Amino acid sequence: MAGVAGGNDFQWCFSQVKGAIDEDVAEADIISTVEFNHSGEFLATGDKGGRVVIFQHEQECKNRPHLRGEYNVYSTFQSHEPEFDYLKSLEIEEKINKIRWLPQQNSAHFLLSTNDKTIKLWKISERDKRAEGYNLKDEDGRLRDPFRITSLRVPVLMPMDLMVEASPRRVFANAHTYHINSISVNSDHQTYLSADDLRINLWHLEITDRSFNIVDIKPANMEELTEVITAAECQPNQCNVFVYSSSKGTIRLCDMRAAALCDRHTKFFEEPEDPSSRSFFSEIISSISDVKFSHSGRYMMTRDYLSVKVWDLNMESRPVETYQVHEYLRSKLCSLYENDCIFDKFECCWNGSDSAIMTGSYNNFFRMFDRNTRKDITLEASRESSKPRGTLKPRKVSTGGKRKKDEISVDSLDFNKKILHTAWHPKENVIAVAATNNLYIFQDKIN
Amino acid sequence: MFPKGTKRKFSDSGDEPAAGGEDVNQPSSVAVRMLSSYSLQRQSLLDMSLIKLQLCHMLVEPNLCRSVLIANTVRQIQEEMTQDGTWQIMTQALSAANAAAQCSADRLVATEVLCRQTEATQGEQVLKPFPAVGSEGCPAEEEEEVVVEEEGEGGVTMSTVSPQAPTSYLPGTFGMDPCWEEENGEDEEEDEDSEECGSGSEEGDSDRLVGDSRTAEQVFGTFEIKNPAPSPDPALEELFSDVDASYYDLDTVLTGMQSAPKMGPYDLLESLSSHGPSTLSSSTSCRSDLNELDHIMEIIVGS
């Protein structure tokens, strides 16, 4: 990776785009989650239609060494189906809220995918050989007449076209009354947590009929409900530690060794409010939409409506770094409240070395921040700005009166084109950006 | 920044009545204007928030996080308005209107909020200016399928919301035509509150007046059903006994949907629900549904 010492000097190039080109976007095709696996070889996406598509990183071409390999479709399967809750007369959406890969332990790959109510463990395995020469069956599967069998033979494994099978191995259902917003695999590789608006449950991957409730913030009297859980994640190194964020902009770190029910936090992270910028929307924009630990486990990052904050786990009083994503929207909060955009839940992600962070914005813009140099860049994920292997041009939103050439004014931003989900390859400078129904893959130019 | 469609009409500062209590003492008209502009903004934010809370997606459960954040915003505005004294003024005016109306508050709300066309069709002559204005005055409102209530229910509906209430505000502090909207804001809460107090029958407690100063607790408290319709069938109760009832309560108002046994007095929610029976006489059909369910259970259990 370039610039290890002095910071990252990325030159992002367009690599691929997946998805339909039509202007008419089918609701079911809208991508709702993007996740690389631990090696970066696989990239999984989930959509509103309940489908999971897995892309595999092809081997680099020997005759074109300046290109890293491309991601091509590896497997597609229907993870969740729409359901109907008869008791409440409400539909349960099949939209995949989150996908989390399990660390690979054998030749098969496992991932957890969840919708609002049910989590499923999927096994994705390859089959490239099949047995031929059965005694009791014909090649097409029909049973042979026993009287015709005159000799015995040993079946032989013959190569076949690669077939990728996805099968649901576990279904973790009926544990969440409210909508699941997060799942996180524990570092013990045996348990995982799932969080909904008011509760967090701890599961064992092998056991589907039981889960432990470890956080419950539901008030006895629902009239008193003023705060909900918005995201939760396990600490990557310590299997007893996890954090959860709230709609009031706070993060609580809990230690499962302290008590069975972790309602009392071990650490409480909250930045004191700036009284000069208080408005009716202060609470809404402080609501945290995503929380992610750094790979090192020492820091965590939170995303609220206008900014990304990096916290040192050892300091609860305030974040160590704050990055403004789209401060120019602060004066537009009322309109954004009216059209509900203020409730959009943006995600954020770290790069493999924790030196850079990325998050999405509107108008298909996404932002990257270099933690060392404090430089930031705005890029766009659109077909117009994506020439094959062309370097992405930095974009700028003009905030003042004079709009320079190539800048776009705040009022021209398209708030329907929002980038909520982004992912960064754990080892290389490859990023995946979901723009509505299209998945863009960008790579850093190898010098 | 104003939501779309809100009229920014602001007449001369001389027109402001004492209703805008906090403005009266301001010496300069500019300051007065600024304060009124702030009040206007705040009021439209309140209205917008209340409408957002009510118009929930029919088929899918609404986002709890969003609902909580909007409710907190409403609470915040209410607290500020209570401190200003504006809140008391509004509620007093509405109480007066209610007394004049002599109708059940919940019916008042159901029609006011959603039936902007309905009151015109009902041939009421009082609020003539409002139907035209109201629809544009309400930002981001979906055109809901409106339920026209049966005449048999005896509804003197919003037509009897007396003219006094609107005219006292009309050119007034808030400077916008739909002060009817601010009544709406109130009435929606009143409705929910009366639901909270209501018994099983939809005709019940019709003359219950709304309390004067409404705290956030009362508003948010309407999200819980205090007196659910008692289940007529013990076998059915057993069937639902392991349902987490408390979730159900918040759920019903936030989603605007209820399943058959709890339909009872919640006119507003029924009118929102496209699944639910469309008239207030639904409770009888609920009972027949329950009997059917009982019958089915008998078959399954084989008793």
Automatic annotation (TrEMBL), chain A:
- Assigned protein family: Belongs to the phosphatase 2A regulatory subunit B family.
Report if keyword Lyase is assigned.
Answer: no
Q: Quote any Pfam family the record assigns.
A: WD40
Describe the subunit structure: PP2A consists of a common heterodimeric core enzyme, composed of a 36 kDa catalytic subunit (subunit C) and a 65 kDa constant regulatory subunit (PR65 or subunit A), that associates with a variety of regulatory subunits.
Q: Which InterPro entries match?
A: PP2A_PR55 (IPR000009), PP2A_PR55_CS (IPR018067), WD40/YVTN_repeat-like_dom_sf (IPR015943), WD40_repeat_dom_sf (IPR036322), WD40_rpt (IPR001680)
Q: Which organism is it from?
A: Salvelinus namaycush
UniProt-listed Gene3D superfamilies = YVTN repeat-like/Quinoprotein amine dehydrogenase
The name of this protein is Serine/threonine-protein phosphatase 2A 55 kDa regulatory subunit B
> Any idea which UniProt keywords this protein has?
Repeat, WD repeat
The answer to whether the entry has keyword NAD is: no
What would be one Gene Ontology cellular-component term for the protein? protein phosphatase type 2A complex
The segments labelled Disordered in the record are 381-404
Gene (name only)? LOC120046564
Name a GO molecular-function annotation: protein phosphatase regulator activity
UniProtKB/TrEMBL annotation, chain B:
| GO CC entries | nucleus
Sorted alphabetically, which InterPro entries does this protein's record hold? Answer: E2F-SERTA_domain_protein (IPR052262), SERTA_dom (IPR009263)
Composition bias type Polar residues, residue spans: 157-167
Show the PANTHER family listed in the entry. CELL DIVISION CYCLE ASSOCIATED PROTEIN 4/SERTA DOMAIN-CONTAINING PROTEIN 2 (PTHR16277), CELL DIVISION CYCLE-ASSOCIATED PROTEIN 4 (PTHR16277:SF6)
Return the protein name. Answer: Cell division cycle-associated protein 4-like
Record-annotated membrane-spanning stretches: none
Compositionally biased region (Acidic residues) = 179-196
Q: Which Pfam families does this UniProt record tie to the protein?
A: SERTA
Name of the coding gene? LOC120060362
What does the record list as coiled-coil region(s)?
Answer: none
Q: Region Disordered: what ranges?
A: 1-25, 153-211
Q: Where is the SERTA domain?
A: 38-85
Biological source species:
Salvelinus namaycush
